[in-house]
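Sharing in case it's useful to others searching the archive later.

Someone asked me privately for the predicted structure of Alanine--tRNA ligase, so I'm posting the question and my answer publicly. Question first, with the sequence:
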Amino acid sequence: METAEIQRRFLKFFESNGHTVVPSAPLPAFEDPNLLFVPAGMVPFVPYFLGQATPEWNRATSVQKCIRTPDIDEVGKTSRHGTFFQMNGNFSFGDYFKEQAIRFAWDLTTGSLESGGLGLDGDRIWATVYLDDDEAIDIWHKQIGLPLDRIVRRGQADNMWSMGIPGPCGPCSELYYDRGPDYGPEGGPEVDEDRYLEFWNLVFMQNIRGGGPAKEGYEVTGDLPKKNIDTGMGMERMAALLQGVDNMYETDQVRPIIDKASELTGKRYGVSTSHTASESHPDDIRFRVIGDHVRSSLMLIGDGVVPSNEGRGYVLRRLMRRAIRAVRLLGYDKPAMPELLPVAMERMSAAYPELRTDFERISSYAYGEEEAFLKTLKHGTTILDTAVTETKAEGGATLSGSKAFELHDTYGFPIDLTLEMAEEQGLSVDQDGFRELMAEQRRRAKADAAARKTGHADLSAYWKLLQEQGPTDWKAYESLATESRVIGILSEGESVAVAKAGQIVEVVLDRTPFYAESGGQHADAGKIVGPNFFGEVVDVQRPVKKLVVHQVRVLEGELVLDDRVEATVDAEWRLGARQAHSGTHVVHAALREVLGPTALQSGSFNRPGYLRLDFSWRAKLSDETRSEIEEVSNKAVRDDLPVAVKYMTLPEAKDFGAVALFGETYDETVRVVEIGGPWSRELCGGTHVSHSAQIGPLVLTGESSVGSGQRRVEAATGMEAYRYLARERDLVSQIAEEIGAQRGDVLERVRAILQRSKDAERELATLQAKAVSGRAAEFAAAAQQVEGVKVAAIRAPEGTKGGDVRNLATQIRGHLPEGEPGVAAVVATAGGKASIVVAVNGAAKARNVSAQALVKAALSGKGGGNDEIAQGGGVPADQAQHLLDAVVRAITA
Ligand code: ATP
Ligand code: MG
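And my answer, the predicted structure tokens:
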């Protein structure tokens, strides 16, 4: 049975049992600051389970895309761990409980194929339950008929579910399928988790847990008022069972990638005959890593993640690099992504059609990343080789942790690669030292994240407010001032009743005109004024959906809970914000008009007077392209296009051609902002001008690279654009005045001045050379007698250049008496270094005085030339006199 069919049957089964089908949330966990990615089907429903929000339904079902980074090291080595997988779930919010949940799972898994079930053999199913959950045992045994010897009691670590922190928890029951003696020893899941494959976990959320260790050893402190059900069936594991293959990498969604890799590398997949993944040949594991990681990369980029050196982007980068490296270890060293990624897309697009329509963008990131990594590999390999040679030269047998870290951090060289390559050259690696440095870096990253304003990990105070007071009545689209009531004051995450002058607190109002930072638009600025209070709004965020939180600096008086206040947005600020945000849409549309539709925005930021926009594009924009984008943008302003706002459903918006951006989660009804009809259509919640002419001038002020395959344009808008141009004009005026030219002639004059300055420098150099050589006779006359040789050993004037030193030496030699042995040695210093030229005449040469030998004597063996003239240098300038002395000594000897 194909994976797509399992998905269809699962959703149909639960839909016909009263569950609402909820689409998968995107892989990045946008709503939860504690998570990078969604690791389980229940994550999008967490606020409902915690009672922080009320769902519209009490039964739901979903197929959720998941990423589990902690499982990365298991990939290919067990039969059942993918970094990406799909979790099919059914959820009950205070509706049905244990009995019904077990019944549903059993009926669907063992139900016949004709009746819409999955047709597994019930006699091979085992169930685990929590130690004292006799209720579950009874249901399994008495109602389902599972024999007691296939029901296993397990402890807290395995069969008590919680989120690792105080909150809801509950016993769970896991379903295992016995794949038979070929897969391992008998004895149930406790003996062998490969033979007995876990495919479904049923969580009975009924208790409350206290603090303590995350997984095991915490206390269960009470019962939940409403009991919930959360289940997760691994779609890939079910597919492996139903397709009769050994592991999840051989199922219909992944295996074709492996086959393609096998074709490319000419290596066979399936070298070992054992069914057990852990006994596999290393090549087989590499193939599975490729299959898994290529698919995960596709899904991640599909959901808007782009390769980078931190956070989500780093996870993606790591997956891609591991896959690419595995391909190379299998013996293929050309770019592999262009061969493998399309295979993954073909398999996955049946369930996720956007992967096909968006493939040009997705693949451009993937291919770009591979190209970059192949370069890194080349470069990093040289660095590693040098480090290995150095270590060996010093007699060491261990590559230092800091070198391994540097390779990792600076060159993106994965540690396993360093380990392997060092080992090939007979060295081990100080892994402890490496890990220590990594941990330190991670601590730093964590501290950074905590310092970010949205990194406030504990959202419970906000959820509580939302629940008690309801959503903020949000008037940002209609007005700049509201009469409001203070319904919450928070100081460092805690509710307080009063805020006093000097404090910065978070203020929640029942109604507000303030725009909270989102969609790239900076928060509004303004003030809140009460009967005995004056405060400045310094930031506005929406930490949980529908709740606007103002960060307020109390300037005068005190703010008391329940106060009536006036909340006023700074009108000038807002006008600037509207100009900048509409300007961002205009620049985006202009980019796509000039560069084509793949120049898709991947991030943006705007505040009054300024905007920046990141987009996928590989090459630097030429000056002409920049000008063209600027011109198209300003024409759109001149044409005074109408700006319209429309509300529709997400599918309608997509049909309508609206550009949806990543990093945003969209509600069922979305807001589309149009500029000039179809010219620019984007899903956007921002505040905008009503006609494009109100944006005012738009000036591109910068274009730069922000990571692989990503460029950034920056622009000034409105008055700021005017000021930018005015500053440039003033600059030209000042230059013109300075050089005494008309404005129109400035460029020509500057060029002429530069030319004159160059000519003058050249002339000066010639004069200096002449002056130096003019003294050649003088230098020759001052030569001293050394062992019957006339030696002119002199210091050239500071700054004499290489060629001139040589000329000087030969000229001095020319002035030494002919027929008498003579040597000219000239030392020059420049740039902190000293160099020497030695010239020897015929008579000296006849007495076996060699220029080359003299230079070598002075420079301990270095230097080059012949018997008549030789030179060398590179020693510190303070050695200059020593060089001359050494030459004289050498002649004496
Ligand atoms: P395991 O112990 O095998 O790692 P788990 O206990 O971590 O599994 P759960 O957290 O209970 O799994 O997740 C529910 C279901 O999701 C599992 O029963 C399994 O079918 C599936 N699943 C979990 N992790 C993965 C993974 N890395 N790859 C594929 N499927 C998975
Ligand atoms: Mg697990």
